[in-house]
Amino acid sequence: MQEENIDQPDIDRIVADLILGAGDTTTLTMEWVLYLVSKNKEVQQKLRQNDETYLRNVLRETLRLYPVVPFLNRILPNNAIISGYNIPAGTTMFLTIYTSGRDPKYFKNPEQFLPDRWLRDNTHSTVILQKASLPFAVGVRSCVGKKIAETQVMTTLSKIVNKFYVELCNVREIKIDLQMISKPSEELRLKFHKI
């Protein structure tokens, strides 16, 4: 077995990624989903039809607008030309998932919560949308817990909306607090009305 030599800054980056990935990411995703669903009665009604595709699209759209891990860093393994700039191998690349998910070049009405934008039809290219919104990253360093997190959020959301109408009670507009992990600018106040 070949021994790998990893220097301390790389170890620090790897550990930081693991801590971020293992944090309260699923809980925060659920908060953002409930926030958006509570603001959209028609979305709640559609979710009650128990359509797994629509559930997945609500989750995708939530993570596009509010990625829990809004930034990624990667070390460029080879020299590359990116947008006309020569970037040498070994350069740390800092990517913003938050910005790419709101880029009007890829998303029409990027600030709006529109789960139907993820439907596969002739007017949308979901492949392009998926490449522009990478809340779980991509490739060998993507989130190992993606499937578990998606299943937990979709199952929980389905159970909630089938039993309750969710109402947002916050007076001020909730904004995204972009730090290592994105979270609501203030505690969400939700009311659950039994159906």
UniProtKB/TrEMBL annotation:
GO terms for cellular component: mitochondrial inner membrane. InterPro entries: CYP11_CYP27_families (IPR050479), Cyt_P450 (IPR001128), Cyt_P450_E_grp-I (IPR002401), Cyt_P450_sf (IPR036396). It is an enzyme of class 1 (oxidoreductase). It holds the Pfam family p450. Its EC number is 1.14.15.6. GO terms for molecular function: cholesterol monooxygenase (side-chain-cleaving) activity; heme binding; iron ion binding. Belongs to the cytochrome P450 family. This is Cholesterol side-chain cleavage enzyme, mitochondrial. It comes from Rhamnusium bicolor. The lineage of its organism: Eukaryota, Metazoa, Ecdysozoa, Arthropoda, Hexapoda.
